Amino acid sequence: MPCAPNMEATIFPNKKRKFHQVSCPHAFFPANQFRGKFFGTTSIASSIRKSAAGSFGPELSKKLSQLIKIEKNFERSVELVARERRVVAKQLSLWGEENDDDVSDVTDKLGVLIYEIGELEDQFIDKYDLYRITLKSIRNIEASVQPSRDRKQKITDEIAHLKYKDPQSPKIPILEQELVRAEAESLVAEAQLSNITREKLKASFLYQFDALRELSEKLALIAGYGKALLELLDDSPVTPGETRPAYDGYEASKQIIIDAENALASWTLDNSYVKEPALSLHQTVDDVYEEHQAEDAEAQWAEHENQQ
């Protein structure tokens, strides 16, 4: 079965990576597609990582440390999915090349799009990791605050112990002065924790949601171009002995791939297809009800309070 025209120049030519040819001259895939950043991702190893996550370090930062390590496991899983996606793309092309011209050409181009999904998932990991790294800033400040909390608690316990055992101990006034200084230091540390937690929490999830939005919208684009490729297939039934018309969709499929590449390359958050969500946030009873309903709602609430 003859292969479709050579597609090396149309398979996302702006991507600077080495390609090697497989059995069909129009199918190309990166030579290092089977390499991964992580190895040995077995269920046992994953279980060990999850059980050990957050087991060490200051008590205050343990839960966030666990979240950060679990997110790392999530990234490993996405990386595995991306790698398998590229294997799927190659196998689809290899299968399709032995079919009729239209099936061979369309499956080859579908393989290109599916391969690109794997590439996008790899890019998603890099951008998603910004979210995880930013969370580390909160974990670090939590870890730095723990000593000041421990010191204040230790002095408080010592004072309580001395007051119970030896109320006249001369150490009590000294410890009380130390407690004042410790509380002052703790106030500074707690204020930093409060500020950094809110700042970095907001920044980190903005990274995550932007990464999710980019991946989702680009996947939607690829799905649209994939459906356009399917329209090139003549799926009208033929009777035994009847010959299908010759396939003439090579140029069209080539252009669809080029259009897909251009659409993906030109996508930015600023020209995102999904607009900001319409929110229905209500702060007071007047925002929820019409004026004549507000009084009834307030009266019902007052009656409910009286019954409690």
Automatic annotation (TrEMBL):
Lineage, top-rank taxon, reads Eukaryota
| InterPro entries assigned to the protein according to its UniProt record, in alphabetical order | AH/BAR_dom_sf, PIL1/LSP1
GO biological process annotation, one example: eisosome assembly
Gene Ontology cellular-component annotations: eisosome filament; plasma membrane
List the keywords (alphabetical).
Phosphoprotein
As one GO molecular function, the record gives:
lipid binding
Question: What is the name of this protein?
Answer: Sphingolipid long chain base-responsive protein LSP1
